[in-house]
Structure formats: structure tokens, C-alpha cells
Amino acid sequence: KMEKNSRSKQISIIPKNAYGLRTDIQGNVHFTLKQEIIYPVAGVLAIHDFTTNKQKFLRFPQNCHPERIVLSPNRKFIAVVERNNDNKSMVNVYEIDTLRKRKTLQLPADCPNTQIGNICFTHDSRGVAVLSVEPDAFLSIFSFDKNDSLIIGRASNSSQQGQAVYLSCNPNDATIVAVGGYYMLKIMNRTDKGFGQIGTIKGDDLLITSMTWLSSDVLAAGTAETEIIFVESGELKIRQRADLIETVDLSGEGDTDLGATAAEVAERKHEVLCLTQFEKGFLYAIHNVVHVFERESNYNFRKKSIIRVPITLYDEPQYKIVNVAVNHEQDTIVVATLHSQLYIGMLIVPETLKISELVFQNLGEPLHISGIIGMAVCSWKPIVMTASRDLTIRVWNYETMKVELVKKYQIEIGVIALHPSGFFAAVGFIDLLRLLQIQLDDLKETKSFNLASCTQLEFSNQGHLLAAAHGKMITLICIFTFEVVQSLKGHNGSILSLAWSTDDAVLVSGGNDGAIYKWNVVTGERLEEVVQKGIHYRSIALTSDAHSVYSITNTGLIREVAKSDIAREFKIPELTPLTDMALARSDAILFVGSVKGHLYNVQVPLVDTSSGNCTNFRFFNTKVTKICITYDDCTLITAADDGTLIIWRILNNEGKTARQAPELGRCADVLIARQELIEKNESINTLEMRIQQQSMEFAYKMKQGDAFHSEQMRDIHKDYCAAIENLKKKNIEMEQAHTEEFNLITASIAQGKEDHQKEMMDFEAQFHEKIIMEYDKLTSMKNKMDAMREEYEVKLRRSAGCLQDTIESMEADQKRLLSEKQDIIDNLLKDMDRKRAEFDEYCRQVDVDNDRHKVELQLQYEKRLQEEEENSIKWRGEAGVLKKKFSTLSRESEAYRKEIETMQAQHGKFQQSIRQHQREIEALRKELAERDSTIRDKDRRVFELGKKNSELEKYKQVLSMKITELKAQIEPKEREIKEKKEFILEMEKKLEELQQNNKQLELQLQELRDKYVGIDLELRRERNRFRASKAQYQRLCGEIYNVSGLIQRPELLKRSVKELCHRYSNDKELQKSLALDEDVQNEFLRQREYLERMTKSAKQKASGQRKDGGESLKLKKENMELLAELNALRELLNEKQRDCTRMEALLGLSSKAI
């Protein structure tokens, strides 16, 4: 039980999300029936529901390398071409719903090359066509029926120029396959010997790059010279430029030759790829552009849209489209590009949108296109930062599964580290070490350090220190002051790994010199050390109590170092070189990765090799570069050398996670620059202003639309009345036409009855004649059959009697001869017995003469025996003659039997002829029955037509009733319409009165506005005058003050007063005032008095200035009163507009009434 509990609590992981795409596999994106996307990532096949962002995975078999993925036409099966370590190819067919393997196919042994080049499902998804690689490519069609039938034939020949690469099955016939490639294009059909070619096209001058069937007899193929050709029934139909084509017309004779020169062909660098047919049309890709054609008829297509992949971060060749997938509803397209990115777009633009060119959008998140070389996890935020060889740094949120930031640099990135707060990051470039701020959508440099080619960076757990390993030295930098705190020296090689203790008092380092050092951060002293030359410590981890150090080596070993000694050592299976490791904060979870893509969960603390526990999670197909465990010990993040990022959920970790510090919490803030915030606020304000403007424009358009709709309603009402009148006229015309048609039908029915009666009479007469003739023939045949039967019976009796007589006579003769021979033999036996008795008596009597008599008797007896033997031979000969006679008689009897059989065969033929005549008679009877049935049908039709006629008459009456009812309904409605028209006229009069009132109010408003403008101008003029007078007064006061300083010097005072008088006497305003007032001119003549009273005049001007200020206040008050009147007028105008809208609603002229 303890063992079971321990096993049940063993740490396990399941993939939550996988970010990546393999471009080394052909056909790397497909759509399922459930709107899910299938694509290969790492060592699995991902089935991604992009609406819910959920994934499920199908692992490829171990030690197998997938090369091509093909989806069946019914979207229920997927075939994967896989190659094992022995360089043998096979096809595994999986069921998408259950993710179970259904079949495994291999090329037959007859193929000279067992490697698979291309595959394609048949149109019914019940078979797979497989093309082997060159040279001598063979074509095989496997069927999924019970017999597992196979068709095999040669697709190309090594003696010919062409090479078979591409394959496409006919959409209607599973035995027709198109094969194309370099200088080759064939349409092949199944024959008795394998496959034969259809048509004359060979493609000797074509470099085929993709092809598909548009129908059962039309094939489209793209070339490497940016051309697309159409083949019909094996003959070249049309050849056109793929980038310039707008329509495709296959109904007539097309241009089979483009007439392009060699220079024009050389300029076309892009291939026509991913030719795909769907129910509404077809599409193809040229570099980063997809051209979509919609089907107008069976042989006509028109270009509907162009969809382009935007070129953003990388070079233009990286955006080449390598695969295309269309969903089952045929409204969405997904493409895969050369730089491992998926894009999604709208397939066909609706007619309502006048857009000819669309742009693809990223499907999911933007992915790395090269290996991930650096990864760091934040403690306070659910983010992880990755750096790749594609010169980009990305910030991922592993809770929302989104990429929050992408930044591309021009120089190579070596290593990265993320601050625990998530606000800062340290990035080691080739030339410098830079400290960056992580802002909302950018990485802004804060400080740079002259530390080139850093091999490892690590922030302390509290975030106040940064450890940077460069060369053979470790530099500790304070984040707050940017000063170097310590420099740790001691390694003799590159430093490959760093680890901080929980309290940031100890730093551990490991390098390729075989040394692990434990440093005191404050003093810089070396506390512990372990050195073993030839070992590379690629990654290390320090336990929470800083007692033990876990490390991995390039020899496949995991070591636990404590107190300057190797305490424990654990060997990974096969001793695969390890790349990275991650230890949870609880010291109870440990994961390591290897160069072969293995991800191991190692039980900690480490135990002996013999009893150690190690679980391998097979998911990757390339080297695992980085492994991290999040701060809560619940999520594992791994990165691979092909740019794949996998986020795992750790299971069975209850009791194996460390307690989180409550003071840390979770931070969700993001740094943003002040200027960016100001710009965003300004953009928000401008957008709000635009929205207000657009809402006002929309309201104005709505009003115009209401007026337009009211006019349309009037027109519709007129049209409705006219349509009712037309319907009345049409009803009358239809009634007249119905009566005429009914009369014609009755006449035609009567005529049909007469014709039918005549035909019936003729047919009955002909039928009776045929019956009489057939009866005569039948009687004659019967008489002949009776005569033949009698003759045959007589012959049989005769042959039977003769045969019986001959057999009986032969049997009697033979019996008689046998009895005679038997009597002779009996007599001879009796004589022999008698002679033997006599001889015995004679022997008894005469013993002396026994020999002599014996010899004589023997001689006599032998002679007699010879005679008897001769007699028996004669009898045997006679028996043989009798046997021959019997055999001849048997032969004759067999001949008679054969004659009897021939007679029986003739009898059978006669019976067959009789049956045939009986069948003819039955057929004639059937014809009669059919004729009777047709007569009944016609009678039934006549009866039905009569019924229909009666129904039409009833319908006519109903229509007449309805017409009367409609007339009765129309009259009150016409009265209502008249009343409403009168009401509308009254309302129009009222509306005109209101409009006149509005016009009067507008005139009054315009007068008030003009008055306001005039007053405003006068006010401005007065203000200008006031400013001028004030300035002049200030200047005059200053000059008077200067002149008053010369009061002790009368001559200078006199001269300056004269200059002052001349200067101000030339003033235009003053001249105008002098011209207007004669008293002022007299005062100017008395200059002395003027100078004496200058101060008084200045005082008068000051008092005038106060009066001017009072006048300006009066003008302001008048201005305020005018504004108040304007506001009141505006309110009145709004009320009038509301009254107008209410009147429009009552009249039915607004959209609300409609």
C-alpha cells in the first residue's frame, strides 16, 4: 500500500499550451470539421481550437521522423509519412476524433525504392495513393476495404528526363491520378498491367511546383516560372501568368503559349505554390500573397480577393507561404510561412465590402523562428522572458497565454535575466551588458556596462544585486546605484551557470573547467569548492537551506554536492548529455533536459543509481535548451532549440510546493513613459472629438434619411394604388383567358375521347386478328408435337423390342452352350474317377508292372489332358466371340440410347419454343393489361380534369367574392386616405405657418447677431482707443516728469516744452480734435497757459480714463444681456424644432412613424 501511495503521488506534468511550428514537415497546417487547426510542433501533432485556445496532442511514434501530413477529403482521417532510424518509410493513418491509429501502410517489395515521396487520399477517403522517390518512382494505390487491395505501377523512368514529385487524386475517380514534378506532368489511369497515360501532355518544358483538380476532367498546375496551366482530358488547354491573371475561361479555346522571352522568364523568381481547390473556387500562393478565385460556372472563374502576409520583423524571403488550409465552411483561410508562423484571414470578401486586397492576421501569438537561447521567469508577475537566435526578445504571460511585448535587435543576444519585480531585465549582448526597463510596449535602456560576451546573468532573489559572468570572472552589480560591488575570480574556464541562495548571502557558480564554487557575496571569499577536470557543469541549483548544490554534466550525470564533496550521483538512462535543470523552491521537484529532447522528472533527494526514480516525458524532437519552474511551483516552462516554447501544468504536487511570501503578492503594474501617456491622452481626446463630430453628422444624415424615406413612402403609396388597379385589370384578363382556356380544354377532351375510341376499335381488331393467327399457329404446333410424339414412341417401342429379343436369344444360346460344356466336364470327371479306381486296383494287383503301366498311363493321360486343354481353348474362343457379339449389341443399344437422347433434346427444344410462345402470349396479355391501365389512367385524368375544372369554377367564385370583399374594404380605406390627405394638408399648412414663424425668428436672430457684431466691433475700437490713450498718457507723464527735472534751468525747460508741444501737436488724433473744435485750437495758441495747466489736463485725462473704464463695464453688461437673449432664442429654436419633429411624427413623415 505504501508503494501504491508513493506511485500515485509521483510528480507528473501535462502540456497546457505549445507555441511553435515545424516547417521541415510538408503539409504542416490543416482544418478539421470542428474548426480546429492541426499542425506539428516539437515531437507531437497539435490539434488547436483557436476560439477557446485549447490544445490536444498526438505523439508521433518513438524513433520516427514525420515528413509529410495529409488530411482526407472528409476531414476525418489524417495520414502521416514517417521515416524510422533504418531509413524505411511508412504511412500511418490516424482517426482525428479518437486520435487512434487505424492503419499502417508500406510500399510493396516490388518497388525499387521504399522511401515515400508524396501521398494523397482518394476522393472517397477510402484509399491512399503513394508515390515513391526517384529514381524509378512507383505509384501505388492502397484501398481500405476488407481485401486491402493494391494497385501498383511505374510513374517515371530513370532513362527519361522527368522526376515525379507531386501527386493529386481525381475528385470523382479513385483510379485516375495526376503526377507532376521537374520536367514532368502526367495524368495516369489504371490498366490491366498497372497505369497508363491519359492524353498527350508530358510536361517536358515545365517545372511543376503544385497542382490540383478543379473538376473531374480539368487539372490546374503551377510552375516555377510564375505560370499556371490548365489541362483538360490530358491535353494542354490554357497557360497564363499567375500574377496577372484576373479571369479563367475554360469553355473555349485558350492561349496555350504565352510567348514570353527568356529574359521575362528569368525575372519571374517566385513559384506558384499551394494550389488548393474548394467548392466555391480555387486559390494559390505566390511568395507571401494568396490569390483567391471564385467559381462563376463549371468552366469560368474570377479573381475575388488577394490576401497578403504583412512583412514586419524579418527579411522578406522568410515570409514565403509554404502551406494553405481552408475550413469546412469555406470562409476562413490559414497559411503557414517559412519563418514558423501561422496567419489567418477571410477567404472571400463579401460583396458589401468594396475591398480587393486583404491582410493576414497572426493566428495565436508571434513565435520564435529560431532556437531559444535564454529564458527567465518573474517572481512577482506571471511573465516569462525569452531570447532567441532570431535576435528578438519576447515577454510572455503564462496565465493569459499572450505575448505582451516583442523587441528585435540588430546585434546578437547572448543571455538574459529578469528582475523579480518584472520592471527590469538584464540582457547580455556581444559588446555590452544592458539594463533595460520593461515598459508597456518597448524595452528602454537604463544603463549599459562594458561587460562583453556575458555567459550567464542572474538577479538576486530580493532584486538588489545582479551577478554577471563574463570570461573567467563574476561581477556583482548593485541595481540601485549601478556600481560594481564585488568581483569574484577563481574559475579557469567559462562560467556556465549561477545560482543565488534564498537570503542572497551565497552565490554558487559552475563552469566548463570542472569546478563548482560557493562564494560569500559580502566578503568575496570562497566558502566551498569541488573541482573535477573534464566535466562541464552546464546548470546548477541551490537548495533553500544553501546546504546542497544540484548540478548536471555533459556526461549525463546529476550530482549533489555538499561540503566540498560529491554526496550523491545519479545516472540518466543512456548517459545522454544534459542541457539544463530546474529545481522548485520547495526542493521536492526537479526537472532536467537533454540534447536528444528528453525531459526527465528526477526524484529528489537523489538516491543510489540502482533504486533511483526517473520519468521521461517524450515531447520534443530537438535539444531542450532552457527549463524554468514558476515561483508558485505549479507551472513548468521549457524551451527547445527549434524555437518551441511549452507551458506545462505540474500535477500531484500537493505538499511539494513552497510557501509564498505574503509581502510579495502579485504585481500588475506596467511602466510607461510620461510623454507616451500624454500622447495617448491627446489621442483619446481627439478620438472623443471625432466621435462627437461623427455623432452630429450621423444625426444630420438621419434627419435627411427621414425626409427621404417620407418621400419614398409617398411614391410607394402611389405605386401601390397603381399596382392595385393593374391587378384588377389583370384579374379581368385572367378570367377571360380562363374561360377561353376552359373551352379549349373541353374541346380537346372531346376530340381526345373520339380519337381514343377510334384507336381502341383499331387496336381491338388488330388484337383479335393476332389472337386468331397465334391460335392457328398454336394448334398446328400441337398437331406437329402429337405426331412427333407418336413417331418417337413407336421408334422407342421398336428399338426396345429388338434389343430385348437379341439379348434374350444371346442369353439362351450362351446358357445352352455353357450347359453342354458343363455336361462334358462332368462326364470327364466321372471317367477320371473310374479310371483312377481301376488304376488303384490294378496297382494293388500288379505291383511289379506298376512303373511300366504308370508311364504308359501317364502318357495316355497327358495326351488326353492336351486334348481336353485344346477343347477348353476352343470353348474359350467361342466364349470370346460371344462376348464380342454382346459388346456390339451393347454398342448398338448405346447408339439407340443416344438417338433417344437426341429425340429428348429435340423434345426439350420444342418445349422451349412452346414456352417462348406462351411468354409471347403472356406479353400480349400484359400489353393488353397495360393498354387497359392507360385507358383507365386517361379516364381518371379526364375525371381529375373535370374535378379541377369544377374546383377552378369554385375558385373563380371565391375570387369574385374576394374581389367584392376587397372592393368593400378598399372604399372605406380610400375614404380614410382622403381624410388623411386632408389632415396632411392641414398639417402642411400648419407646418408652413411654423416654418414662417421659424423664418421670422431666424431673421430676428440674424438681426440680433448683426447687432451683436456691430457692438462687438465698437467695443474693440473703444478698447484700442483706450489702450492708445493710456500709452500716450504714460509717455506724456514720463516726459513731463523729465521736463520737471529742468525747472531750475529755464532755457532748457523752455526748449524741452517747445519740443514736447511740437511732438504732440503733430498727432493725427489731436489734429482731428483741433479741426473739430475751434476752442481747442485757441488753447494751443496759448502755450504758456497750456504748460501751466498740464498737470490739470493730466488729472482730467486720468478722470477720463476712469470714465472710459465705466463705459467698458457698461459694454460688457450689454454684451452679457445680448448673450442671455441669444441663449433664450436658442432654447426657443430647440423647442420649435421639437414641435416640428412632433408634427412630422403625427404626419407620418419621420422614421419613427415609418
UniProtKB/TrEMBL annotation:
Positions annotated as WD repeat: 488-529
Protein name listed in UniProt: AGAP008095-PA
Protein species of origin: Anopheles gambiae
InterPro entries to which the protein is assigned, alphabetical: CFA-57 (IPR052993), WD40/YVTN_repeat-like_dom_sf (IPR015943), WD40_repeat_dom_sf (IPR036322), WD40_rpt (IPR001680)
Signal peptide: none
Keyword Coiled coil: yes
Residue ranges of coiled coil: 778-845, 886-934, 977-1025, 1112-1146
Short name of any one Pfam family annotated for the protein: WD40
Protein's UniProt keywords contain Coiled coil: yes
SMART domains on file: WD40
Keywords from the named record: Coiled coil, WD repeat
